[in-house]
Records
---
Amino acid sequence: MEQIEKIDNYLSGKLSTEERLQYENELAQQQELRDLQEKVIVAKEIIVSANIRKTVSEVHQKFISERPINSNNQTIEVRKPQEKQIFLNNFVRIAASFVLLLAGFAIYQYVSISPQSILADATVEYNPSMFRGSNNHLQTIRSFYKAKDYTAVIAEIGKEQNRDSEMLFLRAMSNFSLKNYQESLKDFGTIRQQNASSLKPSYVYEIEYYESLALIGTEQYATALEKLEALKANNQNPYSKLISDWDLFKLKILKSK
Amino acid sequence: MTKKEFDSDLMVLQAMKTENSLNAAISFLYKIHYDMLENIVKVNSGNVMDAQDVIQETMITFIEMVRENKFRGESSIKSILYTITKNIWISKIRKTKQENLRIDKYGAENNEFEEDVSIQLQKREAKTLIEGVFNKIGESCKKILTMFYYEELSFKDILEKTDYENEQVLRNKKYKCMKSLTDLIELSPITAKIFKNSLDELK
């Protein structure tokens, strides 16, 4: 906690000269602190940016809803209703509109939700950059993956006799990205089997997440829902933060279709 | 705040720099310039819905330029808004591969802001890639982080506006929220890196 506060104070110029020099010295020596500072800077930019967007969006909505124009772009006189006369009418109208809106929204959601729309909302790009130490062929495969040449990743891994869990995982993710969900499920399953007898299981959190999404891709909605609900409840898994109640709700609708 | 309260562009720019008056300043710009900006899109093969998207992006970009002191009123607000809208719309047309649409009407209207606007739009594009992660954290976290980093309120001020028991509880909560956000950023490090690099390169 102290580190983030110190970074905040440093970035906002609240440290004394002595504290600032000491912090900059720590920064020069600690890669971990530099990484954290970088993330705090990005996070601050995101917070400011999202709030500016929100403010503009609110002003925009208000402006558009109050803009009295017709098709010729001319001002239309907006007549004021007689308050006493139509108070009740207004109430009924508002209530009816609200019910209609809710019904319309529910119908729209029911009709428009598709596995593609859920996958598009929930999927985050997987980055293999943290891997270290490997043979040349694996480096080549990683390069293809980073370049999003998923077909090449699958072809290269196909040439390997002994596929380790990283290769299987990258192939699963490549198939996932190419929407070959059935194929990706096979490799996820193999890694899970290997993990069951391993002292050092691999990609446990990643598999829980992407396997659930691949199940949506193969229309196994009930199993996907069960897995995603369990994942969301597991705070240890960093991917739990990526699943919203709204995602689960949409999946329930899809399941009921 | 009414139109009368903004007698000059400089007053509008000043108002845009603080959260309390930002809403009024943007509302004012909408009233004064919306029709002109909408027209830029409409006369160049766009419709009113296209214009709504473009104008919102224009306003966001403009606010960022003002806050980063990239625009200090060297020329009129009308001119800079025109230039931003034009660039965003051209970029959108190109992205949707509608190059056959007529965009030549803009040809001879380049001005001194072109480069600054172009750089700002690149930064905005990088931000758009990653700003969605903010919506992945809970509402209470969004509220605290907004008050702390956007409204720049102190813990004491935030404590008065929220129901937290004491300042330490609030500090802990703010830390957890920030941790959630940075964890999400870590989950998409490529995007975060692209974003950070863009900011560094375009400073």
---
Amino acid sequence: MRLRIFILVVVVTAIFSTKTQASELYDQAVSDYDFQINEYRKAYADYVVKKEQFIAVDSFANQEELVVSARNMLLLRGKVYEVYWQALRTLLFEAEGIDTVIRQELETTVSNNQAQLVDHQTLLSSKTTIEELMSEATWLNNLSKSYVNTAYELILNVKVARLHRSLLELEGYVPKLEENINQQIRDPQLKESKLRGVGEVANILTSARVDFQSVVDKYVLKEKRNYEAAHDDMAKELKPVFNKVRQVYQLVSELSLGTEL
Amino acid sequence: MRKDSLIEPDDQSIFGESQPIFQAPPEEIARQEYIKENQIILRKKRSKMLILFLGIVLVVSGILALIMYQPPQQPPPPPAPTPTPIPQNPTALQQELDRLETIVNEADPNQKPLIPPPVDMDVSL
């Protein structure tokens, strides 16, 4: 019994430790993202002013100022997306239970995006005219839809994975709870009442699992689609499943009273 | 007798010698004595008044002192040491339930995602 508890504590600590590190990485990535987006906003405001000045007075000085300002703004635009992908990578790393194929595909896509953005920023730094800058800026403009779609595909899969994990954890906990009640509760009436509660929990879990699977079949492992729209629809459909999961957690917490692992 | 009667009227200096030089008239003396007596009486009255006043002051002070006096309060007994709860490590069961709760909370599909950055992706210079 003591050995079992020791092993359980070690496992739980290890899981928490890994999760904490992952959460810290994600928080750091989000912090970097917030900083870069603020820098981008300032640069964009400056670019708008310089552009208006150039339109008003088409002088060499104004043109030079516009090139400098536009280059800075475009560099920061690329940087913002670069740190954004980094944040999503940590989210992907953290999420357990994503289909292996989908995970690998997303990991590769995000990694490529980051590498291309680094190249994009290097190229932008060498551009000295408006035309050259515009040509390089267009490359990223054309990736806009693809970027948004990849981002929402990743977020959608992370949400599915998190809900799936919560279902798995609760499905794994219920048999342990039933065993503990049978072994540790002496009062026959209390035992019977608790076991009846466990039966009810199992039914809710089964129902949640069925609902979850139907949402997964609808939105995941399909041909490429518009994930931005799918994300919103899926979040609505997953909400009832989540409510059942939360209900199950509350019930097992109550039924666990008076027992020990 | 006759001699005496003859001499007496002739001795004019006797009256003059026996008469005290610059002595105040008896009315004045009586007046001064009266004044002195009055002053003595007044002084006695003042002394009595002073003694009475001091007595009143003493009595009032005593009453005030009695009113103001509060016996020194006993220092409050030190509070009985309340038994401080001994911090208990969460049980293995509680840890497991906490872990499950974290996992369930993270699974909320309505959690705000990190949406794509709001940057100008249609920029034209």
